[in-house]
Amino acid sequence: MALVVQKYGGSSVGDARSVKRVAKRIAEAKRAGNDVVVVVSAMGDTTDELLDLAQQITPLPPQRELDILLTAGERISMSLLAMAITNLGVKAKSYTGQQAGVITDAVHGRARIVDVVPHRIRETLNKGQVAIVAGFQGVTQGTNDVTTLGRGGSDTTAVALAAGLGADVCEIYTDVDGVFTADPRIVPAARKIDRVSYEEMLELAACGAKVLALRSVEYARRYGVPVHVRSSFSAHDGTRVLAAEEKSKENAMEAPIISGVAHDRSESKITVIGVPDVPGMAARIFEVVAGAGANIDMIVQNVSAAATGLTDISFTLPDGDGPATMAALTAVQGELAFDSLQFDDQIGKLSLVGAGMKSHPGVSARLFGALRDAGINIEMISTSEIRISVVTRADSLDDAVRAVHTAFELDGVDGEAVVYAGTGR
Amino acid sequence: MALVVQKYGGSSVGDARSVKRVAKRIAEAKRAGNDVVVVVSAMGDTTDELLDLAQQITPLPPQRELDILLTAGERISMSLLAMAITNLGVKAKSYTGQQAGVITDAVHGRARIVDVVPHRIRETLNKGQVAIVAGFQGVTQGTNDVTTLGRGGSDTTAVALAAGLGADVCEIYTDVDGVFTADPRIVPAARKIDRVSYEEMLELAACGAKVLALRSVEYARRYGVPVHVRSSFSAHDGTRVLAAEEKSKENAMEAPIISGVAHDRSESKITVIGVPDVPGMAARIFEVVAGAGANIDMIVQNVSAAATGLTDISFTLPDGDGPATMAALTAVQGELAFDSLQFDDQIGKLSLVGAGMKSHPGVSARLFGALRDAGINIEMISTSEIRISVVTRADSLDDAVRAVHTAFELDGVDGEAVVYAGTGR
To answer: Membrane-crossing residues (chains A, B) (predicted)?
Structure first.
């Protein structure tokens, strides 16, 4: 008998019919002899509809109130799911984040889980019942205020509960078969990968793969929670995310180094032109950017032109952070004495992810060669131990993903490969 | 500076626009120097929509889950209202029943408030902020489970909070101007009454007046909470519900004894025909009825016909309790040896309410005379210290209300008078 945490997203519980279908699946897992904990998101578009209601009231709703509003969504889905399971003859009870013991800090809108105290969930399991838990939400310790965890928060709830309960596996149900070597909508030859390490999955999630939220992967890695990404429409195995040692243990042959190709269209590029090339200038610029609340991704600084003593600094950041950052930089133009600012939201980022990439020479050469042969210009480059990312024009990104996927022989062959990288744009 | 608890029902916060309108009213009360606590119901038809969703899942949802589901409604309205008030420059925070310290028993679906511990509400007031509280809901003490209070629960929340906080007044906002001498839709000459005692209001609410929930009046009476029923669309005074002593104190002249005429179309009548007239038979019948969960209102037993030794017993009960009660009685027909059962949902009940009715002879004679003159047949009669109720055919009820309203000189004259008795049928 295993202890299984299952997570179902909003598209899996879009209407009463889908709720009943998911309930059937949960009842089967229970009847197969497992202890089952289910984390569920709000139904379909509920969260967006609630956000829209808030916008009708005020353009800048207080975050505390917005959090209370949004958590109504999971309240609805979790209770309906508990009813549907009970209706199949399996006892089930639903719990809010607070009731399930999901304790967070007080940063409304993107709270972090600081502790999980799942007494009531354990009690429910001990009684032989299924426990349904609202994803995406928690409660602050002292003040008992309701918080939300931000985008992908339900994945994080599921992994955190799995860690807190010592679950055997955390199953993330989605509408695709697992993690793919690339977004199948862009690369029809993309393949589902069977195993991926936490580290590779982290890079993939950070680089635009949407199938698992980045923070949930971080959490899974820290606590060693085995994650299984799979389809809610089939019984097939999906993708298992696990420790690198486990991954190589299960894979007797030498693992191919490339896991897959992720892409991301949700970033913009800001270039600060004509920056005096004196010590401390970059630090000052990024102080200002950080003050505007932006999360910077890639940074590139040109070599200073000796004649002028000026340089250009470019960086990428989420589209949404653009306006505030541009305003903050404009405000200090006099102080920092740069020439001008450029804002560009027509960029795309391609990331090649794989273990031990730095120790295998030739990977970057092959990547750049593939892009050159496809006639695609590279605007920025950044690398890590297991990733190379390049920025291209947004309208060249699909071609770039296909070219790289082919160049690394990921098309339709068995083996390891990378991640479904849909960005929803 | 007064401490005011205001309650707004679902129709007052039906959409974003109404929420903003209500917010303005609340902000005004705050700016006028009051401490303001607001209890709010779910927006418009939200509760019915959630009930419908549950019905799509299962015809018999577990009550605990249904309660969690329904409380999503107030979560939405309360957070939107807090946003709207904040947007007007007045600080406001919203609290669930649990956060506001509304402790109930564990009878899901119709829980009773057992304690109110409004620490956080008091803190919020001390900071000079408006506290918004979800109506209709509470939490069980030990298990921290979410409960709902049943129909009219938000009125009860408001009165209970007003009692717990020692508020100066509990204002119940509605879409009519207050409590009327009769339903103005039936009696165009009906007048708003300025003051009514708790006891009279109790009888009126119990007899079909919908403007205030019965349980909230009980609560107000027990804790001496001054209630003010008024329109959310005007600034006029509505109806004040207060202790009988207060009522007569403020009213120097001798108070007319009649408060008003209430009516109710939501009951049915069951007649058990040919019951052996032996001791204990009525007790046994009403044991069975109670076992079916029905709330009995009026009971009439015919005088036994000496020749047969048989009698008939009729009683009224809420329409919804009819089928289960009929089934329960049918099941014991053999044991109790009665002849047959009749079910009649085409009845109406008229109630005349007023202080000291029993000590004023002639009131019932005048009532029966008025009905006789209008050609209306009386099927059942029951009386209390301050009320006379009669059952008529449902289709005669409007005529009966008008006839009695006129006979007691309530039409369009200043003075005391009775309640808006709309039943929604």
So the answer is: none
Looking up residue A224, the CATH number of its domain turns out to be 3.40.1160.10
Question: Does any domain span residue A132?
Answer: yes
CA dist A250 and A410 (Å) reads 20
**Torsion over CA of B54, B57, B59 and B65, rounded to 10 degrees?**
-50
**Are the beta carbons of B68 and A50 separated by less than 8 Å?**
no
Residue A36 above 80 pLDDT? yes
Model confidence, pTM: 0.80
Packing angle of the helix pair B46-57, B72-87 (nearest 10 deg): 150
Residue B56 has pLDDT above 90, yes or no: yes
- ipTM given for this complex: 0.77
Residue A139 CA to residue A259 CA, distance in Å, equals: 37
Please answer whether residues A419 and A199 qualify as being in contact, where contact means their C-beta atoms are separated by less than 8 angstroms. Answer: no
Compute, in degrees rounded to 10, the torsion defined by CA atoms B64, B68, B73, B77: 130
Range of the domain at A21: 3-252
Give the largest Cα separation in chain A, rounded: 80
Q: Mean pLDDT, chain B, as a whole number? A: 89
- Could you tell me if residue B410 is inside a domain? no
List of residues 6+ apart from B417 with CB closer than 8 A: B180, B181, B190, B191, B193, B256, B258, B259, B260, B410
Q: Which residue among A19, A57, A60 places its CB closest to the CB of B84?
A: A57
| Res B415 pLDDT > 70 | no
Number of domains in chain A: 1
CB contact (8 A) between residue B86 and residue A144 = no
* CB-based contacts of B122, cutoff 8 Å, min separation 6: B165
- Report residue A359's pLDDT band, with 50, 70 and 90 as the boundaries: low
Is A75's CB within 8 Å of B69's CB? Answer: yes
* Mean pLDDT score across all residues of chain A: 89
Residues belonging to chain B with any Cβ–Cβ distance to chain A shorter than 8 Å:
16, 19-20, 50, 53-54, 56-58, 60-62, 64-66, 68-69, 71-73, 75-76, 78-80, 82-84, 86-87, 93-94, 96, 99, 120, 144-146
B223 part of a folded domain = yes
Contact call for A68 and B86, based on CB within 8 A = no
DSSP string, A275-337: EE--TTHHHHHHHHHHHTT-----EEEPPPBTTTTEEEEEEEEEGGGHHHHHHHHHHTHHHHT
Asked whether residue B397 is assigned to any structural domain, the reply reads no
Tell me which residue of B10, B43, B7 sits closest to B25, measured CA to CA. B7
A8 labeled binding residue: yes
Name residues whose C-beta falls within 8 Å of residue B318's C-beta, 6 or more positions apart in sequence.
B266, B267, B268, B294, B295, B297
User: Mean pLDDT over residues A66-85, rounded?
Assistant: 97
> What residue in B sits closest to A91 (Cα-Cα)?
B62
* Cα B353 from Cα B196, distance rounded (Å): 11
Q: Is the pLDDT of residue A185 over 70?
A: yes
- CA nearest B65 in A: which residue? A79
DSSP string, A28-83: HHHHTT-EEEEEE---TTHHHHHHHHHHHH-SS--HHHHHHHHTHHHHHHHHHHHH
